[in-house]
Amino acid sequence: MILLNNSHKLLALYKSLARSIPESLKVYGSVYHINHGNPFNMEVLVDSWPEYQMVIIRPQKQEMTDDMDSYTNVYHIFSKEPQKSEEVLKNCEIINWKQRLQIQGFQESLAEGIRAATFSKSVKVEHSRALLLVTEDILKLNASNKSKLGSWAETGHPDDEFESETPNFKYAQLDVSYAGLVNDNWKRGKNERSLHYIKHCIEDLPSACLLGPEGVPVSWVTMDPSCEVGMAYSMEKYRRTGNMARVMVRYMKYLRQKNIPFYISVLEENEDSRRFVGQFGFFEASCEWHQWTCYPQDLVPF
């Protein structure tokens, strides 16, 4: 695999990946953030260049120091020939099979290669799937990359995006001081590693909330290093009041203004969430969201 670290090549890859959306959207979103400050210190590997068949996004080696941190040890994969991914995935120089890790992508056909690779490494694997929900404009992305190069933190929300028409409630950027609140209410969270990950997401990626009468977030939403919108939550006292809808409308408006790609994953059985995001133009993509959680025999999942 070839390490792609030239800005011109990364931009060319970004534009090329747009032609394979939605299957490439996980990797496409990762490359977006890499091209805009690379706040999570990710790196891009391709099997060849400029013609490529496989792209793997992973954290740089110095980021993956905790063998049990599956929030950090995450690999995003897209392949034009997913059935041929086994040999690449078996390579220990590409994936550190001694760690607890996650492989994410939007191609179910990657499963055979992943299972073969994990079997050969005596690694256990758990497969999760969900619906991939996108908007029409995401499918029509032209990869123009018009937004200003630089980190999101440098850009910031426009002032008018903080204004709220609802008395006693105010739309705002989610402050990192509330990472513990987000962590306590995230189904995949509630531990120290997830808290560290959430802090990183809030500090360096777009997030938003609605502050209630006490000045504390009552609804919020965040983004991950692959541009997936998630961790959305409303405190029980403030549910079914339209608060989350207000957050989503302003948040999506901001993302579109900055040409930041975004998408959502929802469990198929979660009909309430599917109906909720449907009102904002989200619909099921032609492929699904997939995650393979892998861990060596001696690292029991927590």
TrEMBL record:
BP terms from Gene Ontology: glutamine metabolic process
Keywords: Acyltransferase, Transferase
GO-annotated cellular components: mitochondrion
Gene3D superfamilies noted in UniProt: 3.40.630.30
A GO molecular-function descriptor: glycine N-acyltransferase activity
Residue span, Glycine N-acyltransferase C-terminal domain: 208-296
Its EC number(s): 2.3.1.-
SUPFAM superfamilies, per the entry: Acyl-CoA N-acyltransferases (Nat) (SSF55729)
Superkingdom to which the source organism belongs: Eukaryota
The keyword Transcription appears for this protein: no
A Pfam family that the UniProt record links to this protein: Gly_acyl_tr_C
Domain Glycine N-acyltransferase N-terminal: 1-206
Family: Belongs to the glycine N-acyltransferase family.
Protein name: Glycine N-acyltransferase-like protein
Organism the protein comes from: Pongo abelii
